[in-house]
């Protein structure tokens, strides 16, 4: 479903649709909600019509939303869904998209899917916490694989991006460009990916012989219109800031670019920036953003393959796999040599 078609249905401009789906400022919350809901409904209908089960039956893809602030219709989740559906079809499975939000009773939700005819489940774990996955692991009666999060010490199968490698590559590149004062823009949302990226940042500074300085760490909310204002206020209140920032993801990096622009800081001449996620929009800003690509197609394919193994060879389910898929730094124009 193209942005133009959504725009026509809601009688708004395609640009408004793009801003909403990329979590950018300039769109009212009510309009953003309508766009995302319509996108979800249309995507669900498209998938039902396109990916019919052939021989294996159907698997469920559960979008678990604790808050819904992180899990939205960004390109990562759209591409991940399309990859899952295409790869499942090769194994003879259709895919049913299922949503769980904080409004839903978890016990009732699990009871309902246990009674379904679905062969197994992929669970989007971006906003999933350990307490919830523990309950799922104890009560869900069918095999499942978690995507986009890991739970060390728990007997669950997970497939996610290699956050540690991504941060390592970002710091290594910053150091190679002469930067010794490397800051981090973190998010106040406590999800696995953000936490692991920040902890990796602190760890790999030491690997490269750099000291961790809390004055170089800035925490922002995960709302597009608030990132810029929050970062600018913090930077203006401090005596110093680093020569380069690594942002927890590209949405935060784009907010940082806006803050730097408002502060008359030229990027990359006066301050450099590295993102994480490689959203399509980062190629169309000035300067184009250096960032970390996630290889989300591989994440989707790997998760489907693992789930099919669990469905077809249940006796092997005592072995649990937590796969971290390689990521790659994409060098563009937002980092200068120090």
Could you please describe the fold and organization of this structure?
- By secondary structure, this protein is an alpha/beta fold.
- It has three domains: 1-49, 434 Repressor (Amino-terminal Domain); 50-161 and 296-325, Response regulator (Rossmann fold, 3-Layer(aba) Sandwich); 163-294, Rossmann fold (3-Layer(aba) Sandwich), CATH 3.40.50.
- The protein is built from eleven helices and twelve strands.
- The chain has helices at residues 3-10, 14-21, 29-50, 75-90, 106-114, 130-139, 163-176, 192-207, 224-237, 250-262, 296-312; strands spanning 57-64, 93-100, 121-124, 144-147, 157-161, 182-187, 217-220, 244-247, 272-274, 291-293, 322-325, 328-330.
- The protein has a six-stranded parallel sheet with strand order 2-1-3-4-5-11. Strands 7-6-8-9 form a four-stranded parallel sheet, with helices on both faces. A two-stranded antiparallel sheet has the order 10-12.
- Helix 6 links the parallel strand 3 (121-124) and strand 4.
- Helix 1 (3-10) packs across helix 2, helix 4 packs parallel to helix 11 and helix 9 crosses helix 10 (250-262).
- The termini are far apart.
- 41% of the residues are buried.
- The model is unreliable at 48-54 (pLDDT under 50).
